[in-house]
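Researcher: Sequence recovery benchmark, item below. Answer with residues only.
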């Protein structure tokens, strides 16, 4: 099941897109890979230190997958993804690990 973070296509391109001195189109594969790599760096380096989440380019969209320890951590990951990948289609499949004690014995 995917959880869309932001469902917007690549930025509109006009005659100025790709011109010298102008920013690249957000749909440019190299530019998208750079943004995904920057998100990975932020997830690992900032307050989260989260290494259990992966961001990959798949079929023209970004797939954000992994497991995090808390709902708050998941919300932070999704917030960072919205910031770094604004304007791109992102499908989030980030789940929260169950950390509560079992309420009954496991039967084998």
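Model:
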């Amino acid at each position: 099941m995917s959880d869309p973070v932001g469902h917007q296509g690549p930025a509109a391109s006009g005659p100025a897109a790709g011109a010298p001195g102008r920013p690249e189109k957000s749909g440019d594969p190299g530019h998208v890979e750079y943004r995904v790599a920057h998100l990975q760096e932020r997830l690992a380096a900032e307050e989260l230190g989260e290494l259990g989440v992966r961001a990959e380019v798949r079929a023209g969209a970004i797939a954000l997958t992994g497991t995090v320890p808390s709902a708050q951590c998941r919300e932070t990951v999704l917030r960072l993804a919205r910031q770094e990948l604004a304007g791109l289609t992102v499908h989030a499949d980030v789940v929260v690990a169950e950390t509560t004690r079992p309420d009954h014995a496991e039967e084998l």
